[in-house]
TrEMBL record:
<dbReference type="Pfam" id="PF02615">
    <property type="entry name" value="Ldh_2"/>
</dbReference>
<dbReference type="InterPro" id="IPR043143">
    <property type="entry name" value="Mal/L-sulf/L-lact_DH-like_NADP"/>
</dbReference>
<dbReference type="GO" id="GO:0047559">
    <property type="term" value="F:3-dehydro-L-gulonate 2-dehydrogenase activity"/>
</dbReference>
<keyword id="KW-0560">Oxidoreductase</keyword>
<dbReference type="InterPro" id="IPR036111">
    <property type="entry name" value="Mal/L-sulfo/L-lacto_DH-like_sf"/>
</dbReference>
<dbReference type="InterPro" id="IPR043144">
    <property type="entry name" value="Mal/L-sulf/L-lact_DH-like_ah"/>
</dbReference>
<dbReference type="InterPro" id="IPR003767">
    <property type="entry name" value="Malate/L-lactate_DH-like"/>
</dbReference>
<protein>
    <submittedName>
        <fullName>3-dehydro-L-gulonate 2-dehydrogenase</fullName>
        <ecNumber>1.1.1.130</ecNumber>
    </submittedName>
</protein>
Length: 335
């Protein structure tokens, strides 16, 4: 598999975006947003999904030069219409606005309608955490997951994402399916079995085979009925808070995963807890968990702690290792 430098990957993305008429500054920011995700270890969205993103641009589902606009302000809560612009830029712009509101009110929330897939949702709350905030985010999708007890697709994977400042920040980016489709694709490309069951095979039996699940899409909700219920209520909240499209509307009316609903919440921790006490308490929580006695086959980790390892790995290697077929797809977009 080829190793592609961060600079080359960024330039390649930018060239592809510019060739489709995107404005220079936004093309640079969007390319850098994708590559940052990849450099921090999220290959599924920073690399593997880029060709899918461009296919949606070419279909007219994503408007490269549209930017989000505030259409309703209610103090600490605002509704923004993203006008079908790139989800990554929508997330960056609206996370900045949520932090501005939080600095003023202690908490800031931006509900986003007519947005698009923002790739790694963790990027936006991690951005908040690195600025000293706590962040919460969610997005919906088309129906791509069976409800608990059902067979056909009626739920979105609807990730719920949280991060909090720290050294390093703690980040949980959690699809309501046991495995996100991005992670499932990683296992397919690597031709590796899933570590735990991820869904049902064509005979209705639980399976760890990612190839089967990639084809039949009978993925398990995270935590069985709990993930199913969480997906449902998140879609209701996203629709009500943003005034945007629900999972049924995206699936039946829009006919694809574009025009999704999202929200971002920022909490200014400088207003909720004294700085030295915050550092002390976060360290105590972290140390308490890491002092766990490891299971026979496991290790204890704090969520988000692997990001620095990926950055160091890519720096040592001189770039990011990309699967041959994915790099071929990306290069074909230059033509």
């Amino acid at each position: 598999m080829p190793i592609i430098s961060v600079a080359k990957l960024t330039d390649t993305y930018k060239t592809i975006l510019l060739s489709r008429g995107m404005e220079q500054d936004n093309a640079t920011r969007l390319a850098e947003g994708f590559v940052e995700m990849a450099n921090e270890g999220i290959y599924s969205h920073g690399i593997n999904r880029f060709p899918v993103f461009i296919s949606q641009v070419d279909k007219g589902q994503i408007k490269l030069n549209e930017t989000p606009e505030c259409v309703n302000s209610m103090g600490a809560l605002e509704q923004w219409d993203c006008h079908f612009g790139p989800g990554v830029l929508n997330g960056l712009i609206c996370s900045d606005r949520a932090m501005e509101l939080a600095r003023q009110y202690g908490i800031g929330m931006v509900g986003m309608r007519n947005s698009n897939h923002w790739m790694r949702g963790g990027s936006y709350v991690l951005r908040m955490a690195r600025e000293g905030f706590a962040g919460i985010a969610a997005t919906n999708s088309t129906a791509v997951m069976p409800a608990w007890g059902g067979k056909d697709h009626r739920l979105g994977t609807n990730p719920l994402i949280m991060a909090i400042a720290g050294d390093p920040p703690v980040l949980v980016d959690c699809s309501m399916s046991q495995f996100s489709y991005g992670q499932l694709q990683n296992y397919v490309l690597a031709d590796k079995e899933l570590p735990v069951v991820g869904g049902y095979d064509n005979n209705g039996e639980l399976t760890k085979d990612p190839h089967v699940l990639w084809e039949n899409k009978r993925i398990l909700p995270m935590g069985f009925w709990k993930g199913s219920s969480m997906s449902l209520v998140l879609d209701m909240m996203l629709t009500a808070i943003t005034g945007g499209h629900s999972v049924p509307a995206l699936t039946e009316d829009m006919g694809g995963e574009f025009g999704v609903s999202q929200f971002l919440i920022a909490i200014d921790l400088s207003k909720t807890i004294e700085a030295s006490k915050f550092s002390e308490e976060m360290k105590r929580i972290r140390d308490y968990v890491l002092a766990s006695e490891p299971a026979e086959t496991g290790t204890v980790q704090v969520a988000g702690s692997s990001i620095e390892k990926f950055l160091e790995k890519h720096e040592r290697a001189g770039g990011i290792e990309i699967h041959d077929s994915i790099w071929q797809q990306i290069e074909s977009l230059l033509n």
